[in-house]
Amino acid sequence: MIDIDQQLTPADLLPKLQRFWSVSAQSIDSIEATCLPGSPTPVFTVAGRYTAKSWSEWTQGFQYGSAILQFDATDDPRFLEIGRSRTVSNMASHLTHVGVHDHGFNNVSTYGSLWRLMNEGRIDENRWERDFYELALKVTGAVQAARWSVTADGSGYIYSFNGPHSLFIDTMRSLRALAVSHQLGHRLMAERDQPVSLLKRLVEHATNSARFNIWYDEDRDAYDVRGRTAHESIFNTNNGDYRCPSTQQGYSAFSTWTRGLAWAMLGFAEQLEWLATRDDEELVAAGGRDVVEATFRRAACATSDFYIEQTPTCGIPYWDTGAPGLACLGDYLQRPAEPFNRYEPVDSSAAAIAAQALIRLGAYLKAQGQGDPAVRYTQAGLTVLNTLLNEPYLSTDPEHQGLLLHSVYHRPNGWDHIPAGQSVPCNESSMWGDYHAREAALYVGRLAKQEPYYTFFGMS
């Protein structure tokens, strides 16, 4: 269980954040020099060098979005130019990619971040540039929402790249594509010019994720532990019936892949923040504010509590809570995680995602007048981020292209590099881990400096 530092404040982290952004700049420059436009998208490091992995094109937005975050945090215009020019030249195909569930990853991290900076007055107002970003965001939300399967009760979900039967928990973070598109007044047009509400699809997808991919200690099955999260839910596409939990990147359908858990935590927390900006009338057709927010809040709190309780004291989880080698580590939840152990890898990328999620949930609950749980989640998130800002997680080797060490991609498939002399993957980075470490650092840095509150949807 995380040993929560109750005294830590965002301001306490400012010296570490300054060092973090210095290391981040070196990482971005190194990747720019070796991963040229038009070459395969970098995904994770092998022996400290970023390499590609053909599975789905879901990390390019993190690559160029990282440069935009670097500018946001440091005001260095060189990184704005990298992020803006690469977005314009390289990201168009991602807007109309009908084969993936990753639009919120790729496009909100690039077009969305540039649009947000213009809203904040951080980059010069330009009508045509704004129209370009807004058109991109409208398109990406509609294309994502069109990837739709219907369940037995008539609701539905955005199906994963595995096919129409597959509901991934990862897609909770991609819902921000639908959110921004709806916020801009867009909708999906279907057969016979039938309009489809992006807000309604967002709510239905999140509601079904909360219903089928998350457990609440209600005797659903023999492994019903509150907050336990399945990577995937499987449906019968003939009639929409739910069939079973599954996983692609976790250990089993009845354990919790911790990066999937973190995706749920952050997806629900930031959607709660976004819903708070919408009018009550908008939410009537989606079930009403009280019902929708209660569903999202229940899922956010359950998954966040599970993370706190099932993670070692330092806040860094092992890659799956049911990984078999954990039995060899003894009472591993009562001490800091051990990235160089012999049995199971940790996943720092899950921690980077979860840190932001916990602090956002705390901020949301504080605004709702729920002080005690708000403090618990906020302090837990700061504790996790504080660990990530130190060795052995923050890279200090200028020859290593990564920023956040000890990230894991696909343990079951054996894709992750195992260094000489080690038994499990360690000491490597991932594009999503580095990106989300930057997002968390930017978020907390803004809190520390009392700057505008950072959200994916910016100023309406």
Provide an overview of this structure.
The protein is mostly helical and 460 residues long. The chain has a single domain, classed as Glycosyltransferase. The chain contains 15 helices and nine strands. The strands form four sheets. The protein has a three-stranded antiparallel beta sheet, with no helix packed on it. Helix 2 packs parallel to helix 6 and helix 10 packs antiparallel against helix 12. The longest helix has 21 residues. The model has no long low-confidence stretch (mean pLDDT 97).
Any key phrases for this structure?
mainly alpha, 460 residues, Glycosyltransferase, two-stranded antiparallel sheet, 9 strands
Short description:
This protein has a single domain, classed as Glycosyltransferase (Alpha/alpha barrel).
